[in-house]
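Onboarding guide, step 5: your first structure request.
Type a short instruction followed by the sequence, for example:

Predict the 3D structure of this protein.
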Amino acid sequence: MSAGNSLLPRGGYELTPEQQLAKEIAETTNGNLSKYLMIVCGAVSAAVIVWKVCERIIRLTRHVSCLNNDKQRYFAIPNQKFAALKRHLLYAPVFSKRHNREIQLSKAINVGTLPTRFQLLFLVSYFVSNVVWCVIDIDYSADMATACGVIRNRTGVLSTVNMVPLFLLAGRNNPLIPLLNISFDTYNLIHRWFGRIVILEALAHTLAHYGKNGWVFTPPAGNFILPGFIATCSFVFLGIQASSPLRHAFYEIFKALHILAATAAVVGLYYHLSASPGLFKWLCYVYGVIALWSFDRTYRIWRVIRSHVGGSRSRTIVEALPGNAVRLTMTLARPWNAAPGQHAYLYMPAISYWQSHPFSVAWYDGVEDVKSDRLATTNQDLLAMQQQRVSFIIRGRTGMTDSLYKKAVAAPGGRFETSCFAEGPYGGHHSFDSYGTVVLFAGGVGITHPVPYIKHLVEGYSEGTVATRRILLVWTIQTPEHLEWIRPWMTEILGMDKRRDVLRIMLFVSQPRSTKEIHSPSSTVQMFPGRPNINTLLGMEQEHQVGAMAVTVCGPGALSDEVRLAVRNRQDRSHIDFIEEAFTW
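The system replies with C-alpha cells like these:
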C-alpha cells in the first residue's frame, strides 16, 4: 500500500551516512521494481498484440483467398505444431476435461470454474514474479525491524502498482478487449487473481509495518497508519465477499458491496500516501486508478444516454414465452453498431432499480419510425428514418430474471411494456467470415449467441462476401416448446436466399414427453431425442470439411467442456479452431 522509508523513524531524527545510503538504495530498488512490474505487463500485452495481429492477417488472407474457392483444401490442412500447441496448452483445461463446468460442493455452494493451462501458466508466472520481487535483495541477516521495514516498503509499492491493472481489467470498457480480442470473461478471471495478489501484498505490508514500528492509531502517527489500516481491511473484505460461494449466492448484494469496499480502499490508500511527503510520488498510481474507474463509469453512462435519447422515444416490450423465459424487445432511439456475438447490460428500474445484468443480443433489425415527418427519397433516407430493434431471450432463474418472468406471466396476454435501458453493445469481436466450415453448438438459452451469426453467414454466402460453405447448428433443448424462443427469427432465416445450400440444423430434445414430439421438418432441419454425441458430429463434419473449421459453443458448462474436449482430440486431423462464449461471475 505504501513505500515509506523503513530506515527513518517517524520521530524524524537524523540518519547516519550509512543509513542514508541504505535508504537511497532501498528507494531506488522499490522504484525499479515498480517499473519492472509495468514493463512485464506491457511486454505481455505487446506479445499478445503481435500474436493477434498475425492472427488477423492470416484470417484476412484466408478470407480473401477463399471467397471464390469452394474447395479451400489448403486451409483445411492443419499445422501439426500449432495443432499440438492448441491441444495441450491454448485449449486445454488444467486437468483432462473440466473448465467451464462449475465446481459445486452442494446445490447451494459453488466454488467457481477452473482456468485453462495457458491462463494458469500466466497467473502462476505473474504470482511467482510478485513473490520474488517482494523478497529479493533483502538483508535477512539484519535485525527483524530493519528486514520488516524493507519488506513493508516493497510490498506496499507492489500492492499499489498492481492496482492499476486490477482496475483496468475490471472495466467493461477496457480498451484491451478490442485491441487484444480477448473476452471480458478472461479479463474478469485475471482481475480476480490480480485482486488476490493485491490483497496478499497489502496484508504483508500491514503486518510488516507492525513488525517494524507497531500500529499507532493516535495522532500524529495515526493520521498515516489509520487510513492505511482501513484500506487493508477493505481489501480483505473485498477478498472475502468476492469468494465464489458468496458471490454466486448473493450476487446483487455482492456487486453493491464490492463497489463500496473498493471505494473505501482507494480513499484510504489516498489519505495513507498523502500523510507522508516521502510517499507523494506513489500517488500517481492512485490517480491512475481513479482515472480508469471514472472513465469506465462515464463511458457506460454515455452508452446508455446515446441509445435512449434522440429524436424518437425508446420502447421496450416484454413477452412471456414457454419454458420459463421472456422475449424482451427494445426499440432504440439511436441505432447501435450491431454485430453478431454482442451482448448488453440491461437496467430495468421497475424490476431491479439499481442492478444491471448481461444478456446476449439474440436478434437485431430495423423498424420504421412511425413518428417521423420526413419523406424518404433515397435508400439512405429510408435507413435514417428507421429505428433499430434489438431482442433478448431471458430465462427466469433467480433474482431479477425470476421477477421479470413472473411479471410477464401475470400481465394481460402475457405481455407488458416497461422502462428499460441498455448499456452496450459489448463484444462481437469474433468473426467466422474466413472459415469454410462453421459448427455452432448451443444449449438452452445459449441459442441467442449463434442465431445472429447464422443470419450473417447465410446472408454473406448468398451475397458472396464470406468464405463459409457449410454451417451446422446443433441445439440441445429440454422440450420442444423451447423452440418458441426463436421461432420468428428462425422462420426468417429458413426463408433466406440459398439457405438450403449452406445451413443445416440439428435439434436434440433431452426430455421429450413422447416420441410424437420428435419430427424432422426437412432434410436440412432434423430433430432427435436425447443428447448429441459431439465427437461423432465433429467427425462427420471433418469428413466433408471445406477450408478451415470454426467450432463455437454457448451453453451450460458441461456442454462447453464436451465440445472443447472433442475439438482438442481432433486437432491433428484438420484445421479446427475453438471459440467459447461464456460469462462467468
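Each response can be followed by summary notes, for example: The domain at 309-427 is CATH 2.40.30 (Elongation Factor Tu (Ef-tu); domain 3).
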